Amino acid sequence: MPLTKDQEKRKIPSKTRGDEKRHDENERFEQLLDKLEEITTKGRLKDMAFNFTDTKQIIKSNFIAGMARGVGLTLGTAVFLAIFALIIAQVVNLPMIGEWIAGLVDEVNRYQQ
């Protein structure tokens, strides 16, 4: 919203720099932003063009990404279960929890017979 004439008269001048200099800096900043936007847009377009043209490379990269996810999930699950087993092994030594687990094992054995 632009300033009214009365507001323009009462406006206190900047102590550090003049309005003209600030205006020039704002213009340069806007030009830099426009250039940055253009660069990122071209980069995205290049990525999109690559993805639609090189099918073998897409399949290869997706396969490698899927393998990495699978290996990561497997290793993560193994580490989690190992830590969980260590904690349970320590907890079983507690009398109340040990009795409950022993009762649970007895129930499972009775059910199997």
Please render the helix and strand layout as text.
Blueprint: H1 5-10, H2 19-53, H3 55-92, H4 95-112
Describe this entry's structure for a reader.
- The protein is an all-alpha fold and 113 residues long.
- The protein has a domain at 72-113.
- Helix content is 86%, strand content 0%.
- The protein is built from 4 helices and no strands.
- The chain has helices at residues 5-10, 19-53, 55-92, 95-112.
- The longest helix is centred in the middle third of the chain and has 38 residues, at 55-92.
- The mean pLDDT is 81.
- What oligomeric state is this? single chain
Unreliable residue runs: none
Treating each run of at least 4 consecutive H or I residues as one helix, how many helices?
4
Shape: elongated
The radius of gyration over CA amounts to 34 Å
* Strand fraction: under 5%
Secondary-structure element pattern, one letter each: HHHH
Q: Which structural class best describes the helix and strand composition?
A: mainly alpha
- Kindly state the mean pLDDT as a whole number? 81
Biggest sheet descriptor: none
Distance N terminus to C terminus?
84 Å
Give the % helix: over 70%
Question: How many strands?
Answer: 0
Region (Disordered): 1-27
InterPro entries: DUF5665 (IPR043723)
Transmembrane segments: 70-92
Keywords: Membrane, Transmembrane, Transmembrane helix
Summarize the structure.
The chain has 113 residues and is mainly α. It has four helices and no strands. The chain crosses the membrane at residues 70-92.
